[in-house]
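> example.struct
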């Protein structure tokens, strides 16, 4: 994935861990995957906090594009309903949130990582792409 700054390349990785951080990191110093070519494709291997992880490249289907977005504005509005609304009780507080997103980058695929074994087509992130194919089939003109 190319950054808007053409001197800096990005790669997208989906790790099987919950990391409570969303800022920039110096991944080049700590995250150094190796790639092995096999008859099934490329297998990536790395260590994350002392644990072996294996990864495979996942490609988004033709005609689709992944995007990386950042929430740049979140405004929450509170309103009180009146008794003329059939679905609401008198005095119900309704919270609506408006979010504004900025597109930071786009991507055509990512590396899906799994602890100790190669990710399979049954992994949720990979399996989700099969729904795109199903959607294309059911919306196809007959």
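> example.seq
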């Amino acid at each position: 994935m190319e950054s808007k700054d053409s001197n800096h390349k990005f790669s997208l990785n989906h790790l099987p861990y919950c990391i409570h951080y969303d800022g920039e990191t110096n991944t080049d110093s700590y995250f150094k995957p190796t790639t092995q070519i096999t008859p099934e494709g490329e297998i990536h291997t790395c260590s994350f906090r002392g644990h072996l992880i294996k990864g495979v490249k996942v490609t988004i289907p033709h005609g689709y594009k992944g995007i990386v977005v950042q929430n740049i504005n979140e405004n929450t509005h509170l309103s009180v309903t009146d008794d003329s609304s059939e679905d609401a009780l008198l005095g119900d507080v309704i919270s609506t949130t408006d979010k504004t997103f900025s597109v930071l980058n786009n991507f055509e695929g990512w590396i899906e990582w799994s602890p100790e074994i190669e990710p399979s087509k049954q992994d949720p992130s990979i399996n989700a792409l099969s729904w795109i194919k199903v959607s294309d089939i059911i919306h196809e003109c007959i």
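> remarks
The radius of gyration is 21 Å.
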